[in-house]
Amino acid sequence: MTAINEWIDGQVKANDVVLFMKGTPAFPQCGFSGQVVQILDYLGVTYSGVNVLESDDLRQGIKDFSNWPTIPQLYVKGEFVGGADIIREMFQAGELQAHMTEKGVANAAVD
Amino acid sequence: MPMNASQIEKLIKDALPDATVTIRDLAGDGDHYAAEVVAEAFRGKSRVQQHQMVYEALKGNMGGALHALALQTNAPE
């Protein structure tokens, strides 16, 4: 495992919900990242945002980690759930809420 | 260098010959596309796996030459 791989692995294990994105939750720098931020905020999920624009190693490393070519990437309990299209599709079908609840992550659907 | 819709469709069909591929140029700029791909090969696969199969078909162009491809994948009804 490379250093960056280990670092990513540590992040997704230490935090229940991690969003690797361009920019920050307060200031997304890409429309796709912004969409996922809006969905997570709407669901009232607590998550850790990681800005891949801060490091080229990280920007490439996260793509290798998941074998997924695009950003954003959402991880729940250490598991890759999807990119922007999948997250939007799951949210619209009510599946994202169900997935969070099933994994024991607090969200608006639970309260 | 942006890709045109027929190049995208060809790459997908080369890898998934039975696929029905519908591509829309969202912004008319040759850089923002939406693709709907229906293929028997997707049956029983998770959404992540289905999208990975399409990304693999695009051979590294995704995230590079192809910035924005909104993907929707399904097995035939």
Written overview of the protein:
The complex is a heterodimer of chains A (111) and B (77). Chain A is built from 5 helices and 6 strands; from the N terminus they run αβββαβαββαα. Chain A has 111 residues and is α+β, with helices and mostly antiparallel strands. In chain A, strands 4-1-5-6 form a 4-stranded mixed β-sheet. Chain A has a two-stranded antiparallel sheet with strand order 2-3. The longest helix of chain A has 13 residues, at 31-43. The mean pLDDT of chain A is 94. Chain B has 77 residues and is α+β, with helices and mostly antiparallel strands. The radius of gyration of chain B is 12 Å and the shape is globular. The chains are: A alpha+beta (111), B alpha+beta (77). The A-B interface holds A 32, 63, 67-70, 80-86, 89-90 and B 47-48, 51-52, 55, 60, 62-64, 68, 70-72.
> Helix count of chain A, per DSSP?
5
Domain tally of chain A: 1
**Main interface: chain pair and counts:** A-B, 15 and 13 residues
Please indicate the count of domains of chain B.
1
Strand content of chain B: 25-35%
Q: What do we call the CATH homologous superfamily of chain A?
A: Glutaredoxin
Mean pLDDT over the residues of chain B: 89
* CATH fold-level topology of chain B: GMP Synthetase, Chain A, domain 3
Overall geometry of chain B comes to: globular
β-sheet strand percentage of chain A = 15-25%
Low-confidence stretches of chain B: none
Structural class of chain A: alpha+beta
CATH architectural group of chain B: 2-Layer Sandwich
State the CATH superfamily name of chain B. Answer: BolA-like
Order of strands across the widest beta sheet of chain A?
A: 4-1-5-6
Task: Give the averaged pLDDT of chain A, no decimals.
Answer: 94
Query: What is the H/E order of chain B?
Result: HEEHE
Oligomeric composition of the shown chains:
heterodimer
Helix content of chain B: 25-40%
Strand order of the largest sheet of chain B: 1-2-3
How many β-strand stretches of chain A? 6
